[in-house]
Design a protein that fits this description.
Alpha-Beta Plaits; GTPase activity; hydrolase; 5 domains; 9-stranded antiparallel sheet; P-loop_NTPase; Rossmann fold; translation elongation factor activity; 25% helix; globular; 634 residues; 32% strand
């Protein structure tokens, strides 16, 4: 395929703006998938994606399209069937469908580096959303050609002209540059395909390959490709998703990962249509896959460069590593499942490189893993995939963030301690200073909800900056710029924002600087012993409220013991909340019939002494389901 006939592009949009539906119509119009095989969200291959109606994983697909030919009389256009059956030239359109939620922005960033253009899809019923701004800036910084498109124009709630005005101000473009489509009916989609061919530049050749001894320039023997994603197959090993930058690759070629220096042979090369489809070769400008046959998960990595072993080219810049924002510990319910959990996490990391994990131990929960996530939804999706795809029963600890802690009486006062887990957070009296990450947040909302939003911002310790009208003033929307602790963003902020704005507000955020934090560790004690899995780092101002809630909840689900059990919340160096769980009462004299009453009195006295001894020395064995209920919020 000639370079000038290839177009590589992605679709970026806020969640639920019709991205997957538009991709369905493209696949249908280009003949990539037969109508009888079509289904909704065809590129969302995971059951979890289809169930929730969101895209979690990027998905590449290759479409072949012949632009429509004009009628002989010039009265109109005939949209010829694709796949080369029309009279014009055949173009290869490589689409990478991307997630819309902010927690999966690392997926989006990797996809954008593999393409030359991007469709900015905006719901004409909702207008520009906060997450739209984040992904747009990402694409603009990479120098991609942006095609603004309004979706859902068939909806009776569509505000096409108003939203076009927003887009004109956002992109500083002309109104006629903005396209309108309906993914549901297919209206405007053929015209969009034409515009992709016109506006998105063809892949340009990479830097000329270096010369070798004797002045001979490598031409056909060179090969260099960027790994933008991969997955694992039990039978075929690691399958890398690549964008070819230089040369050509064929089945059987001897290749090299430049980062790990691992050598291997291509067992198969092919394209996504959207299923994997083997081809003879992949050449410069194309997007496809290579089956490596490697069954070790630590060899391949996103952003790595693949080149030939005999004539290697210099590595490409690659990607920045994803930095975890939220941490949580994952333990198997059954200790015997530890090895299976470790294998599952390794396999899962192959399909989600933003996810990280390391082994840890807990006295109450045994061996498990400390895992890093890009957000709360990311955490929820990963744990749900572990349960569904690997059939594992898990205990997930309360999520936390990273703190930098300076200790009192430290011989090296300039050094801080990084704390990832609440039960490693130092006691209040030992802490000199704590720093925590803050986030820069943008919220776009109808103006009538500003009052309620301001109230929850105050409750979550936010610092509100400028407020400005957004888009057409008649639409009555405003954009808030603010900063707040990441700890507070995790404390149910998303749900509260959606509730107070009736679902109309949208939010995007990025990690900002570290600031001094007024926090402490909350411990939950059962029979005088702290339970590490229940520990949390909380704001000192909310210490009493958080302790009361946690103790009340645990006292309602912990089974009674043979002795009186105290459940306490400890923070700020003292007990600030307490509940007493009464003991089981057992009639130990029921087998006695007749005789003097003193016989029963002696036996009851003996039992009382035994319970007193148990209270002093006894330990409470907390059942596994109690941990589950505390962590799952039941």
């Amino acid at each position: 395929m000639k370079l000038e006939n290839i177009r590589n592009f992605s679709i970026i949009a806020h969640i639920d703006h019709g991205k997957s539906t538009l991709a369905d119509r493209m696949l249908e119009i280009t003949g990539t998938i037969e109508k009888r095989k079509m289904r909704a969200q065809v590129l969302d291959s995971m059951e979890l994606e289809r169930e929730r109606g969101i895209t979690i994983k990027m998905q590449p697909v290759r479409m072949e399209y012949t632009p429509p030919q004009p009628l002989p009389q010039g009265e109109g256009r005939i949209y010829a069937p694709s796949l080369g059956r029309g009279k014009g030239e055949v173009y290869v359109l490589n689409l990478i469908d991307t997630p819309g939620h902010i927690d999966f922005s690392y997926e989006v960033s990797r996809a954008l580096q593999a393409v030359e253009g991007s469709i900015l899809l905006i719901d004409s019923t909702q207008g520009v959303q906060a997450q739209t701004l984040t992904t747009l800036h990402m694409a603009q910084n990479l120098g991609l050609r942006i095609i603004p498109v309004l979706s859902k124009i068939d909806s009776p709630l569509a505000r096409v002209e108003e939203v076009k005005e927003e887009v004109v101000k956002l992109l500083n473009c002309r109104r006629e540059d903005i396209l309108s489509v309906s993914g549901k009916t297919g209206e405007g989609v053929p015209e969009l395909l034409d515009e992709i061919i016109k506006r998105v530049p063809a892949p340009s050749p990479s830097l000329p390959p270096p010369t070798v001894g004797g002045g001979v320039r490598m031409t056909e023997e060179v090969f260099r490709a960027l790994v933008f994603d991969f997955k694992y197959s039990n039978h075929r090993g690691v399958i890398v998703f690549i964008r070819v930058l230089d040369g050509e690759v064929q089945k059987g070629d001897s290749l090299l990962f430049t980062a790990s220096r691992e050598k291997w042979h291509a067992l198969e090369v092919g394209i996504f249509s959207p299923e994997e489809q083997a081809r003879e070769s992949l050449s410069a400008g194309e997007i496809g896959y290579i089956v490596t046959g490697i069954k070790r998960p630590d060899i391949a990595s996103v952003g790595d460069t693949i080149t030939r072993t005999g004539k290697p080219l210099p590595p490409l810049p690659g990607y920045m590593r994803a930095s975890p924002v939220v941490w949580a510990s994952v333990f198997p319910e059954e200790a015997d499942d530890f090895a299976e959990l470790k294998l599952a996490l390794g396999r899962l990391k192959l399909s989600d490189s933003a996810f990280s994990f390391e082994e840890e131990k807990s006295g109450s929960l045994g061996r498990g893993f400390r895992c890093g996530f890009l957000g709360m939804l990311h955490l929820e999706i990963i744990t749900e995939r572990l349960r569904r795809e690997f059939n594992l029963d898990l205990v997930i600890t309360a999520p936390s963030i990273t703190y930098e802690v300076w200790l009192k009486n430290d011989p090296h006062p300039q050094n801080s301690v990084r704390v990832y887990s609440p039960y490693f957070f130092p006691d209040d009296g030992a802490v000199d200073k704590v720093l925590e990450p803050w986030v820069r947040v943008k919220i776009i909302t109808p103006t009538e909800y500003l009052g309620g939003i301001m109230q929850i911002l105050f409750e979550h310790e936010a610092e509100v900056g400028e407020t400005e009208n957004f888009g057409d003033t008649s639409a009555g929307r405003a954009m808030l710029s603010l900063q707040m602790p990441l700890r507070e963003l995790m404390r149910n902020f998303f749900d509260e924002l959606k509730s107070v704005s009736s679902g109309y507000a949208s939010i995007s955020y990025e990690i900002g600087e570290m600031r001094e934090a007024n926090v402490t560790r909350l411990d939950i004690l059962v029979a005088g012993e702290p339970v590490p899995a229940f520990s949390r780092v909380i704001s000192k101002k909310r210490a009493e409220e958080e302790a009361e809630n946690a103790v009340e909840k645990l006292s309602g689900i912990l089974p009674r013991q043979m002795f009186v059990t105290k459940i306490q919340g400890r923070a700020l160096g003292r007990i600030i909340s307490s509940r007493t769980l009464s003991a089981y009462r057992k009639d130990v004299t029921q087998h006695m019939y007749g005789g003097d009453i003193t016989r029963k009195m002696k036996l009851r006295e003996k039992q009382k002494k035994g319970k007193k001894k148990m209270k002093e020395r006894g330990r409470v064995n907390i059942p596994q389901d109690v941990f589950l209920k505390m962590m799952r919020g039941q």
